[in-house]
Amino acid sequence: MEDISKTLGDAKAHMEKAIEHLEHELLKLRTGKANTALVSDLIVEYYGTPTPLPQVANIQVGDARTIVIQPWERNMLGPIERVLINANLGITPANDGEIIRLAVPPLTEERRKELVKKAKHAAEESRVGVRNARHKALEHVKKAVKEGLPEDLGKRTENDLQDLVNKFVEQVDKIVAAKEKEIMTV
Predict the structure, then answer these.
(1) Which fold has domain 2-28+108-184?
(2) Tell me, what DSSP letter sits at residue 148?
(3) Cβ distance 27 to 35 under 8 Å?
(4) Which of 45, 142, 154, 173 has the most other CB atoms within 10 Å of its CB?
(5) What kind of architecture, by CATH, is found in domain 36-103?
(6) Is the pLDDT score of 179 beyond 70?
(7) pLDDT digits (tens, 9 = 90+) for 3-53
């Protein structure tokens, strides 16, 4: 019995990770507003070592449409600028010798639709993650039933698993619907 509850707990933990991953991926999508998450995952060469951008510079939102990046060391302006250009963000960095400014342009209708497609793709990946967690847990439950677990308990556990999956898929749908609304709002 405790083995089954551990299986359910593990499945729930995997499903929660799928939701966290979705939220992290959706943060990276540009919505026409400045957001530091847009550049926080970028890696910069710092004295020959690949280093996350937030560890070599201060990243702030200057106003609703501007991201300001101020490196700790002035000689890092060039490498940071190159990384920003190579990241293909669709934003050209403006370097004034002290800081780098990224002016986030308003999105075109075409670009908005493209971002919505990316959001829906990320949502589908999360749904697949949720279903994979259910699949692993179901295999474990079926194995336990073969090893002597009462069948009615196995069926009840399968129903609990399905309820859990439905809850998490509904959560994915809500998150993506909110992001889609945010992207499509002009």
Answers:
(1) Topoisomerase I; Chain A, domain 4 (1.10.132)
(2) T
(3) yes
(4) 154
(5) 2-Layer Sandwich (3.30)
(6) yes
(7) 888 888 999 999 999 999 999 888 877 677 778 888 888 999 998 899 999
